[in-house]
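Q: Fold this one first, please.
A: Sequence and structure below.
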Amino acid sequence: MQEVVSFANKAGKSRIGKHTFLKRKQQLTDWKRYDENGGTYTQKVIAINSFVYEQYCDAKSRLCAVHDINFRAWAIRKARELNLNKFKASKKWLWNFKVSHRIASRKITKVVSRKYKGNCTNIMNRASRFVEETNSIICGYDRDNVFNTDQSGFNYEYVSK
């Protein structure tokens, strides 16, 4: 866009009509305005999305918990930097962002107390025994038929008839 605007400024208005890259006369003034404002609305939203994703990757590399409010705060902060005051990090924007970047939310299923957390050696021993027993059972099944119900959200319920 900047190249077209600078070419039009150098060539003058008499040369604009000879080229087909402008579909209407107003388009050049629109492009000048976009250039002055730092890009179009869509370009700014793309910049916001890339900034938020970079922040997310940085937080995950530091093993920090990232919540929906963090995504929204990062997006609003970047929008203010880009003078995009109309932008609102809505639930719909957040949902679209998470879908496009394949980010899934997990809910807390169990609260751990300090007493439980302090008993790490016993927990690690039990966990290693569980893994050994599970691996011996899994060997008898095809990998496509093995599911991790801890993270899949399956609920088993027996219903009497």
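Q: Good. Now the second chain.
A: Here it is, same layout.
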Amino acid sequence: MTHGFVLEFASQADLDYYLTEESVHVQFTKDVSKLIEDSVVIDIRDGVLFGPAAEHPSLKREGALKGTCHCEAVSWTARLEKAEHVLCHCSTCQKLGGGPYSCNQIIPKEELVIVKGQGNVGVYTYKGASGKSVNCHFCKTCTSHIYHHQDVMPDKVIVRTLLLEGGSKMPATGEIFGEGRLDWVKELKEGLVGGQ
């Protein structure tokens, strides 16, 4: 007969303490091991017994990059054809992000998968340059902008590429809304890969 129970711990340190130092558990383990030859305590991490940590199925897709918001309450994967940024200088990106531009890439909607924290994703809707709605999806806790979905492009999303793993090393290869580029940012164009 097989018996089992599951305990969840707030941290690895709590689990380690329970398994090796907590007096009731240590004594129970000694007593039970005499009665049941095949008794064993199994360490379960990330939903996997032994072996590597669990990975969301979307991570197994070629080219899928992990992304997280600042507080890591929300994580996702995005599959990009090329790991690169397109800079957007529109006034909305400047106001929403508090900087001179945002780093983005337009990808098919199905290539973005929220892996964790879907319930923590809020939506702010505004009118874009097309006059149609743009839905800005962001973390409700830290307000990191994850992606935008525009009514004018229903099958695409605009993912914030700087939030993806390796984002700080991706080259900027283009820009949009260049007319909104701040004067002191203009020399950035010379640094873009290909000078576009």
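Q: Anything worth noting on the second one?
A: Residues 12-49 form one domain.
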